[in-house]
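User: I'm putting together a teaching handout on how sequence relates to shape, and I'd like one worked example. Could you take Biotin transporter from Aphanothece hegewaldii CCALA 016, show the sequence you're using, and then write out its predicted structure as tokens right after it?

Assistant: Happy to. First the sequence, then the structure tokens directly below it.
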Amino acid sequence: MVNTNRTNKTNKPFKSRPPLVRLSIPNEFLWAFIGLILTIFSTFLDAFITNLPWTWLNQGVRSYSLGVTYQIGAVLLTGCMGGQNAGLLSQTAYVLLGLTWLPVFAQGGGWGYLLEPSFGYLLGFIPGGWLCGFLAFRRRTNLESLAFSAICGLVVIHLCGLLYLVGLSLFIPTVHQTIPISSLPMAIFNYSIIPFPGQLVIICAVALLSLILRRLLFY
């Protein structure tokens, strides 16, 4: 199912290195499907953490909301496990499903969602998932490389979201009442700054889970 193709040490630049592990096409499609399902269901699942395990006897198990859902985690986990093609296919399918067929986005779906301020972040899932998957298979599997891949994917998602917010505010007249220029900094704060710490916590979980799964699957 998985073809390992480990390269010798060379002086070639990082960008020219072939992947250390090359997934088969059926595996890529399998992870694309898994990623699509995970992204849909995680959209409506709030992320939380608990207090430290060694305090459970004295304080009990307490949960604390991260203020975000597990959606970002599903996108990046797909890239870390399935590679760039799985990340690209799963998120392209997710966006198209939400625009044309099923209300899989947090506030529904349909073509009208193109005018939602948050849609740029959803659109960013496509390049973000691709980049995460691309980087995750360019170095030997370890916690640091997987975390770096996920962080790069998250940054791309936010960049796409920010560009979309600015574009809506500047160039789409019907959205000016929702995002006037004067409130653009507040929109950026709400959509990027506030959720970012919680998303970083999710990235830590994604990197650890990906490492465990890739060790179990021998790649």
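A couple of points you could highlight for students: The domain at 2-6+16-216 is CATH 1.10.1760.20 (Arp2/3 complex 21 kDa subunit ARPC3). The helical segments are 25-42, 56-59, 71-100, 119-136, 143-171, 184-193, 196-216.
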